[in-house]
Amino acid sequence: SVQRHLSTTQPRGKVEKLTVFGAGLMGAGIAQVGAQNGLKVVLSDVTDKALENGLTIISKSLSRIAKKKSPDDIDGFTSSILKNIETTTDAVKAVENSDLVVEAIIESLKVKRDLFKFLDGKAKAECIFATNTSSLSVSEIAESCGPERQQRFAGLHFFNPVPAMKLVEIIKTPQTSQATYEALREVTLQMKKAPVTCNDTPGFIVNRLLVPYLLEAIRMVERGDATPEDVDTAMELGAGYPMGPFKLLDFVGLDTTSYISQGWRDKAASGQISEELVQPIPMLEKLVKEGKLGRKSGQGFYEYD
Ligand code: CAA
Ligand code: NAD
């Protein structure tokens, strides 16, 4: 358990300043959990609007926690954490003196590679680079950086909602050094998450098992075999899942799910994942085209206020 990991005599992580790129669902959560656990955090995105969106996600989550932890001083609790988070649209400023960059931007190999290539020339040499990619190859992202940085590059995969989900997958590439891996383990424990380790394979552990299930659920509804509501009820009450697959798809984001399956199509060509699994799903693509991305856009398989 997390408790057991935390009680070991691990030396304190050297990471003090954390920079998070992407202030969406995941980046906001990662910044928040860092700030809650003693890190100085910089949250960066491409627009002020995206940064505001991130701060709104963080404030809502913090007030939810404060209602339980310090019900008499919700604002005090919230602002005591928010003061550890700076925001900026200036990527160069964001990595100044940073010890760890966690990238949580759009799930696109090209966009991620462009960002890391740029940052490689700006961040200090010792800074560790990590990607929160759900499905892309960590090595292919890391190759955008020079050989030195590739040793300080790994996957650090959090789960949604970050403040509530206890797991972090640490993904090593053949280039990731042992010191990098250990520093990432320490910072994961400092953020009160339980680390597991995985090779750089499509979907790592959780998504390699979870995403095929989510895609099969959409195919089931697309065939007309059951409604989303009935599939959700079935998996919640019949299999004990906290959320049925359609609630979870809306929660994860249908765009993100679509990017994951698109990214895996390339892997199928090289035999790393089965062709059948990654066939395009017209129902999913149609919703994404219509801007129905799930909870974050107000509508997906379900509608939200
Ligand atoms: N911020 C802070 N705390 C939160 C929170 C948030 N955004 N969301 C939930 N919580 C906390 C609650 O405060 C509560 O805490 P306590 O136990 O201390 O009271 C706890 O989490 C449980 O929440 P609730 O009682 O309100 O509701 P719930 O029992 O329905 O749990 C849930 C909510 C944790 C989201 C649960 O429904 C769940 O586990 N759902 C499945 C989530 C999942 O599978 N995530 C993985 C998605 S895949 C992924 O992330 C990988 C990828 O690459 C795509
Ligand atoms: P999101 O759409 O909520 O947020 C993405 C953010 O990245 C947006 O605010 C966007 O403006 C920003 N962005 C895009 N390009 C940028 C750039 N060049 N520099 C800085 N910011 C940029 O997406 P999300 O759900 O938070 O997913 C982010 C990453 O995390 C993806 O790689 C995704 O696969 C992964 N992930 C998602 C989940 C999930 O459940 N949604 C879970 C684990 C991992």
Automatic annotation (TrEMBL):
GO cellular component, one term: mitochondrial matrix
Binding positions (NAD(+)): 22-27, 45, 107, 112, 134, 160, 296
Predominant place of localization: mitochondrion
Keyword terms of this UniProt record: Fatty acid metabolism, Lipid metabolism, Mitochondrion, NAD, Oxidoreductase
Occurrences of domain 3-hydroxyacyl-CoA dehydrogenase C-terminal (ranges): 203-304
Enzyme Commission code(s) on record: 1.1.1.35
Domain of life where this protein originates: Eukaryota
MF terms (GO), sorted A to Z: (3S)-3-hydroxyacyl-CoA dehydrogenase (NAD+) activity; NAD+ binding
Record-linked Pfam families: 3HCDH, 3HCDH_N
Site (Important for catalytic activity) location in chain: 157
Family statement: Belongs to the 3-hydroxyacyl-CoA dehydrogenase family.
Protein name: 3-hydroxyacyl-CoA dehydrogenase
The organism's taxonomic lineage, starting at the top: Eukaryota, Fungi, Dikarya, Basidiomycota, Agaricomycotina
